[in-house]
Amino acid sequence: MVTQVVIGTRYGELRFYDLRASRRPQCEVKGISGDKGGHQECDRGISALCLTREPFPGVCRADVGGDVSCVDARTRRMCKRLAGPAGAVWSLNVCPFEGDWKDRVACAGYDRHVMCWNLASRVQAPLSSVYCKQRLMDARWVPALAPSEDDERPVEEDEDDEDEDEAMAFDEEESDDDDDGEIDWDD
Predict the structure, then answer these.
(1) What is the DSSP letter of 163?
(2) How far apart are CA 162 and CA 156, in angstroms?
(3) Region 151-166: what's the mean pLDDT?
(4) Cβ neighbours of residue 129 under 8 Å, at least 6 residues apart?
(5) Which helix (H) or strand (E) covers residue 150, if one does?
(6) Taking the alpha carbons of 89, 90, 94, 95 in that order, is the dihedral positive or negative?
(7) pLDDT tens-digit profile of 42-80?
(8) Are strands 4-8 and 14-18 parallel, antiparallel or unpaired?
(9) Helix, strand, or coil here: 60?
(10) What is d(CA 136, CA 4) in angstroms, rounded to the nearest whole number?
(11) Given this model, what pLDDT does residue 170 score?
(12) Which listed site, 17, 43, 152, 174, has its alpha carbon 20 to 30 Å from 68?
């Protein structure tokens, strides 16, 4: 049964609540956002949250200033800062699939980039970044589709492909002798 909740505030705070305990937060994490360009902490509200299980149990958070960071749920301290976004981040999503994409987080934001990071690595720069012409609101991971039965069948070649081969031949020129009542626009 889930008994803990994490809330991101407009003031840039993370508040951890235990539903079995009192109405007050069990822990408040303040001052995570870096100070960019003289912005106050109250100007850097949290715009996106997502939960992580590995490589650490915690929360990835993004704010309207473009800061993306991870907070360890056990210690309630920032354990990783992710570089890249130039504006507000609207969506964060951890990849739920196993394999090569395990421990990846993706974001979409105001700067129209979709970025992907590896949480297990020490590198802060994104693994990949794609610019989209559209204004983005959300980023989700989509599983790779398994091939259908139609895709697995070999393509059978027809023996009637001679017509296509004749039409593609360049060494034979068509004669203009056979006018079937069509207008010849080349004249």
Answers:
(1) H
(2) 15
(3) 54
(4) 84, 113, 114, 115, 116
(5) helix 149-152
(6) negative
(7) 567 899 999 888 888 889 999 888 889 888 888 888 888
(8) antiparallel
(9) strand
(10) 30
(11) 46
(12) 17
42-131: CATH class:
mainly beta
Distances (CA, A) of 170 to 81, 165, 167: 62, 10, 8
pTM to 2 decimal places: 0.65
From the centroid of its chain, how far is CA 153?
33
What are the sequence ranges of the domains in the chain? 42-131
Helix (H/G/I), strand (E/B), else coil: 28: strand
Is a pLDDT exceeding 80 seen at residue 150? no
Do 16 and 8 contact (CB within 8 A), yes or no? no
Please give the DSSP secondary-structure letter assigned to residue 121. Answer: S
How would you class 133 by CB atoms within 10 Å of its CB: exposed for 0-12, middle for 13-18, buried for 19 or more?
Answer: exposed
Res 111: pLDDT: 92
Q: What is the largest CA-CA distance in the chain?
A: 95
